[in-house]
User: Which sequence fits this backbone?
């Protein structure tokens, strides 16, 4: 029939996953549930052929992808040599036409392989922020490989977990809009802490941090969250997407870790000493309240000045940042088209399931770039 395309061919992709931790496990579960329907509805054939953690690797066989019902026990009992080289070679030897490596680690080591993988035609999907906010030369090299069509590099999950933050920014830039300012609450952990600190809760800073830690919202060492470095990396990611060649060291970042506790020998000793500094934060909360404002930990990028900042700031209670609950993120894009009010992306910005969903979305988008129907 004229005007009707022939049925698209199945797009088969060999998948290697590095880092089956909280996010990696959530992703593998989503793949287990959704892979059959993706094949049936969209002819997307995702075959997990390798899973690698720090000490074990599990490899599938030709025509027999890893069983996602039982991979955990198989991985524990695997005696194969666990290395990125072994995983790489296994994927390269697959007869499937497309290969993708999903980096679900927070490692600085794994991203050092991105360039090599892409040069070999392997696509990368990751929520790992370390490449995009790391040494500028390595970031530019990977982006250049993407531009010349060596392989796709996809990283929606690096900012906002499963929220469409990077894709929104890319759409604004690709359609000719002029981004003037980006600012937001980028940390689910710090969002929770300052939502809980706002009156009338009346909790102390140390009590709120303890609560966040008990709920699993913080890293095992809460100083990693309170240092602001996670937010800084996300802001760098956004600034570089806009074309700014900024390095991590150039960002003005306010740490919330009291100076005397920065070098506490253990996370527990840090937590045990945190209450001694409650009065400092209490004074800042009280001052904000007296002016009808709230405290929020915000990262920002101003395009005209090129300045990135990550600071604890005061906002009127009518501001969108003031009405968040739980671990919500809220990112504001002020552009030529969206200026009054700005474009807002808001929603859950932390947690394995939503982060994994952002990675999964990139994986499906990759399959469509490779020819799968939408």
Assistant:
């Amino acid at each position: 029939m004229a005007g009707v395309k022939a049925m698209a061919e199945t797009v088969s992709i060999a998948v290697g996953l590095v880092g089956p931790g909280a996010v990696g496990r959530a992703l593998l579960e989503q793949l287990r549930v959704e892979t059959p329907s993706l094949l049936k509805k969209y002819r997307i054939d995702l075959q997990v052929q390798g899973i690698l953690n720090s000490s074990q690797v599990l490899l599938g066989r030709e025509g027999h992808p890893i069983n996602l019902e039982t991979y955990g026990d198989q991985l524990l009992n695997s005696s194969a040599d666990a290395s990125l080289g072994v995983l790489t070679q296994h994927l390269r030897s697959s007869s499937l036409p497309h290969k993708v490596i999903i980096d679900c680690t927070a490692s600085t080591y794994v991203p050092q392989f991105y360039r090599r993988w892409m040069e070999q035609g392997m696509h990368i999907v990751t929520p790992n922020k370390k490449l995009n906010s790391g040494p500028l030369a390595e970031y530019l090299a990977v982006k250049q490989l993407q531009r010349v069509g060596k392989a796709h590099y996809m990283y929606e999950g690096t900012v906002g977990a499963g929220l469409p933050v990077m894709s929104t920014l890319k759409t604004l830039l690709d359609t000719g809009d002029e981004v003037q300012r980006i600012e937001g609450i980028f940390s689910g952990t710090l969002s929770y802490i300052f939502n809980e600190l706002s009156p009338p809760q009346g909790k102390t800073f140390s009590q709120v941090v303890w609560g966040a830690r008990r709920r699993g919202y913080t890293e095992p060492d809460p100083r990693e969250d309170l240092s602001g470095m996670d937010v800084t990396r996300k802001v760098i990611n956004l600034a570089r997407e806009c074309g700014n060649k900024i390095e991590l060291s150039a960002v003005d970042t306010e740490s919330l870790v009291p100076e005397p506790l920065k070098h506490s020998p253990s996370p527990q000793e840090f937590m045990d000493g945190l209450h001694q500094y409650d009065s400092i934060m209490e004074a800042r909360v009280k001052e904000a309240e007296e002016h009808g404002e709230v405290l929020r930990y915000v990262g920002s990028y101003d395009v005209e000045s090129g300045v990135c900042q990550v600071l604890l700031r005061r906002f009127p209670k009518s501001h969108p940042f003031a009405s968040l609950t739980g671990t919500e993120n809220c990112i504001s894009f002020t552009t030529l088209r969206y200026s009054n009010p700005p474009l807002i992306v808001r929603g859950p910005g932390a947690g394995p399931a939503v982060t994994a969903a952002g990675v999964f979305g990139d994986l499906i988008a990759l399959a469509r770039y490779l020819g799968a129907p939408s």
